Amino acid sequence: MDAFEAALRETLDKTEAKGLLRTLRVVEEDKNIRVFSTNNYLGLATDEKMKEAAAQAIQLYGTGSGGSRLTTGNFTLHEQLEKRIASFKRKEDAIVFSSGYLANLGIISALMREGDAIFSDALNHASIIDGCRMSKAQTFIYQHANMQDLEEKLQRAVHSKKKLIVTDGIFSMDGTIAPLPEIVELAERYGAWVMVDDAHATGVLGKTGAGTAEHFGLSDRVQLTMGTLSKAIGAEGGYVAAAASVTNYLRNYARSFIFQTSLSPGVVAAAMKGIELIQSEPERRQTLQENATYMRSGLQQCGFTLIEGNTPIIAVIIGDAKQAVHFSRLLEEEGIFAPAIRPPTVAEGSSRIRVTVMATHTISEIKKALASFEKIRKEIGIIG
Ligand SMILES: *Cc1c(COP(=O)(O)O)cnc(C)c1O
Predict the structure, then answer these.
(1) 22 in a domain, yes or no?
(2) Ligand 1 centroid distance, CA of 375 (Å)
(3) Which residues sit opposite 353 in a β-bridge?
(4) Which cofactors does this protein require (predicted)?
(5) In angstroms, rounded to a whole number, what is the distance separating the alpha carbons of residues 106 and 118?
(6) Which of 5, 196, 254, 294 is the least buried, fewest Cβ under 10 Å from its Cβ?
(7) Distance 374 CA to ligand 1 centre (A)
């Protein structure tokens, strides 16, 4: 082992000693394992209509787009998808990226420049954090969902040129909903725009599944709604819906849009079908909500400490990182896959099992999962 490799090993060993080493786990359709942590909330990623839509597009256009949107990779399909997203999100236009991660990098770094100020919730997704880091704007991190802290930071930045408040709609590791009415009010008072990351809220919240702004009736007062096509929508890619002036600007300045091969035809067709199914089959969303309520109250009755909320993301707090990993392993032995989430993804001492329910879970599957949670809790004696 040379010095380079030794340095890598040293860092890995330290991480492992703290119980924080990350390893990959293969999750496939295994009849003996039921996944209780996927973001495929509505089950669309394995739906037959989705597969058909993707297969048809592949037959017609092939497996790869062969270029970026601004060169040879712009198909009618891409433009149709953007129109579909815009009307779903009730915005003038939309622009699609290759992932939600790349969308956040591109949107934030392009829109927010030197002399501007970004206000970002402390629990925002890593892609928002990285987008802020890549931007030359000053970034203020406000305490999670703390409106007093947000207002203090807005006051400190009154002389900034452009101001943007950015928040997850549903927080991915806590399952809580952002206090959007209060955020919008502050934004209007201080002349800021609001950007909501609806990765987990699209297909889940709102009368038509359009997300957090629709849930609160605030679609007209949120300037930027970004999201991913890879969670409830069941495909892959990222997007932002906004005024046409914003999307035109991003087509010119968002580097992760410009210098990236466009999404492959199969993925685009699946994404379009996913949005169509979200709109035409609201019963999926209804079942998802019922399953979430059932799972949440069941876990509460077993005596687990949960983060309050009513979304399909249920954070079961274990505390210690090693114990959370142990818990997750025991769950797996019971045929339930729900990984432990540890620092740095979540705060020290708040390691957890991130449970999510799907519209396609049956009540008997949920009951079985609850029985396993209870059994393991008794076995290892976690104090809730
Ligand atoms: C998953 C996620 C993203 C990234 O989306 P991808 O399409 O997976 O790259 C961005 N923001 C939030 C809040 C997410 O949960």
Answers:
(1) no
(2) 33
(3) 316, 340
(4) pyridoxal 5'-phosphate
(5) 14
(6) 5
(7) 31
Share of the chain above pLDDT 70, in %: 98
In terms of Cβ atoms closer than 10 Å to its own Cβ (0-12, 13-18, 19+), residue 146 is: middle
Integer-rounded Cα Rg, in Å, for the chain is 21
d(CA 280, CA 13): 51
Q: Report the pLDDT averaged over residues 134-139.
A: 98
Domain span at residue 308? 282-380
Residues 345 and 301 reside in one and the same domain: yes
Ligand 1 site-directed mutation target among 121, 173, 230, 260, most atoms within 8 Å of CB: 230
101 φ/ψ sector (left φ>0, alpha ψ -120 to 50, else beta):
alpha
pLDDT of 30 higher than 80? no
Q: Quote the mean pLDDT of the chain.
A: 96
Whether 174 is in the pocket of ligand 1, judged by its Cβ within 6 Å, is: no
Give residues with Cβ within 8 angstroms of 30, minimum separation 6: none
Question: How much is the pTM?
Answer: 0.95
H-assigned helices in 92-211:
100-111, 126-134, 147-156, 180-190
338 and 197 fall within a common domain: no
Contact yes or no for 211/198 (Cβ under 8 A): yes
Considering the domain architecture, whether residues 268 and 287 belong to the same structural domain is answered as no
Question: What residue's CA is closest to ligand 1, atom 5?
Answer: 100
Same domain assignment for residues 264 and 319: no
Question: What is the pLDDT at residue 343?
Answer: 92
Dihedrals φ, ψ of 193, to 5°?
Answer: -95, 160
Sign (positive or negative) of CA dihedral 18, 24, 29, 31: negative
Ligand 1 centroid, distance to 36 Cα (angstroms): 18
Query: In the chain, what is the greatest distance between 2 CA atoms, to the nearest angstrom?
Result: 60
Say how far apart CA 202 and CA 89 lie, in whole Å. 9
Whether residues 204 and 313 share a domain: the answer is no
